[in-house]
């Protein structure tokens, strides 16, 4: 099943923190892999219960599956992405 990728407005700020090359690589991976197999990625626990994560190198995406859409909530380095609430 192919999913539509939808981004939360704050994701644009997250991408500005990355280098241009890293941001391009992350977005390319999202469009190619996440849109096809979103349900295959691990579910999170604790304060992020009900959400899922996707790994691109040292960067993590936190997303939710809403029907036919994948809502990308946050993109960040693996050491920082889980520290703030969404």
Essential attributes:
YaeB-like fold, 4 strands, 30% strand, globular
Concise summary:
By secondary structure, the chain is an alpha+beta fold. The protein is built from 2 helices and 4 strands.
Helix and strand topology:
Elements: E1 4-7, H1 11-16, H2 20-37, E2 52-56, E3 59-66, E4 69-77
Parallel strand pairs: 1-4
Antiparallel strand pairs: 2-3, 3-4
| CATH top level label | Alpha Beta
- CATH overall fold name: YaeB-like fold
User: Globular, elongated, flat, extended or rod-shaped: what is the shape?
Assistant: globular
Largest sheet: 4 strands, mixed
The helical percent reads 25-40%
Mean pLDDT: 95
What's the order of the H and E elements? Answer: EHHEEE
As an assembly, this protein is single chain
Task: Tell me the fraction of residues in β-strands, as a range.
Answer: 25-35%
Low-confidence runs of at least 5 consecutive residues: none
How many individual domains?
1
CATH architecture: 2-Layer Sandwich
Helix run count: 2
